[in-house]
Amino acid sequence: MKSSHLDNIPSTPGKFKMEKPIYNHRFRWHYSYLAKLTFWSFLFLALIFIFFFKSPSPSSDLSRRSLKTRSWGGPAWEKRVKSSAKIRTKSGFSVLVTGAAGFVGTHVSAALKRRGDGVLGLDNFNDYYDPTLKRARQALLEKSGIFIVEGDINDAVLLKKLFEVVHFTHVMHLAAQAGVRYAMQNPKSYIHSNVAGFVNLLEICKDANPQPAIVWASSSSVYGLNTKVPFSEKDRTDQPASLYAATKKAGEEIAHTYNHIYGLSLTGLRFFTVYGPWGRPDMAYFFFTKDILKGKSIPVFESVNHGTVARDFTYIDDVVKGCLGALDTAEKSTGSGGKKKGAAQLRVFNLGNTSPVAVSDLVSILEKLLKVKAKRRVMKLPRNGDVPFTHANISFAQREFGYKPTTDLQTGMKKFVRWYVSYYGSGKKNDH
Ligand SMILES: O=C(O)[C@H]1O[C@H](OP(=O)(O)OP(=O)(O)OC[C@H]2O[C@@H](n3ccc(=O)[nH]c3=O)[C@H](O)[C@@H]2O)[C@H](O)[C@@H](O)[C@@H]1O
């Protein structure tokens, strides 16, 4: 080994060579006493540390779990939350919109903000469909001053914090696991979001002081195998055809319970196949457009004996008006801090278009707008949760808040296609 100037510096152990003790007996006793004292003091401190930080208190345990993974909190974050939720008009609302980066959530958030309400979004940005579309919607909302907190409705600690920072007057609950057919592939996700998540949200709302009024998204699918048309809110909804429908129906029953026990004001909205710009890529009109442009064949369902499959397709702007009408007529919750003080409002409304269109006609409309002939693959309606038709009776919503859809499928699809082409381009090779 090569010698260097480092070889001349004595090593530390050489300073206190054990074979040449420089201390006497008394000194050795003191030394061992000090060592023992240090050891026991250290042990004592360690025990205190373990006691405080590992105690099994459920709430502290919950908050620590959340702290470990959380991407929220802190003064700057709270400031953003408050500013986004700030009411800008005299009689405005402060609304928490769950699922704000979703299709309906984005449109409703923007409409509320436009009229001066305070809006705070919440979304978990899951990948059920392309999350970049959700991020693009988020960017759009951010431009109008709406902050979307990234989190799940199952996160009780986060929700609690949001209600601490803002006294929401209303919750527009649109976060859900959507899609009828996907329920056979991933049943648990429906329970997680539509049942457990909803209950978690209601638990926080009932404890809040003041309790907010809640408007939430149910679905036309709750009518299931109902054959009486048009579908009225009074019709039976005990024959769901998919797990998705069953979880939405469960939501309606859960809403009843929270209204009954805690005095929460709850309004469920049964949406009928909502479509439009910034829509959901998992829905038929959306992926039909994409596949027609690419020259790919599209599966067009028909019912028994070549019967038509039809939907009461409802344009997004009409649905948004319905959502705002429901919010504006929602009465206050009557309870506070988990205690009911009196009977509270409980409502369910159909938000449809009242004019069902056959899926084959939807394809014809798209062909004309896209100027491309579709390659139709006509096939029997699979047994995966789909129902043959939907048709809304909207007289209740009309009576309560003047709901009146004004966009027919032709007009609405034109607007959708215009958006689609501007967002994705009409390039047939474009994949997303
Ligand atoms: O209104 C509702 O309650 C529901 O509307 C839609 O569900 P759905 O009406 O089944 O909408 P799509 O999946 O877009 O289907 C539209 C129509 O196209 C048909 N379809 C679907 C897929 C396909 O490959 N081929 C086809 O012909 C369906 O049978 C249906 O009649 C939404 O996906 C649900 O989240 C929502 O709750």
Automatic annotation (TrEMBL):
Primary location recorded for the protein, binned into one broad class: Golgi
MF terms in GO: UDP-glucuronate 4-epimerase activity
Enzyme Commission designation: 5.1.3.6
GO cellular component, one term: Golgi cisterna membrane
Membrane topology: Multi-pass membrane protein
Enzyme class: isomerase
Subcellular location: Golgi apparatus, Golgi stack membrane
InterPro entries: Epimerase_deHydtase, NAD(P)-bd_dom_sf
Domain NAD-dependent epimerase/dehydratase, first and last residues per copy: 95-332
Pfam families named among the record's database cross-references: Epimerase (PF01370)
Keywords: Isomerase, Membrane, NAD, Transmembrane, Transmembrane helix
TM segment ranges: 33-53
Catalytic function, reaction form: UDP-alpha-D-glucuronate = UDP-alpha-D-galacturonate
Family: Belongs to the NAD(P)-dependent epimerase/dehydratase family.
Record's subunit section: Homodimer.
Protein name as catalogued: UDP-glucuronate 4-epimerase
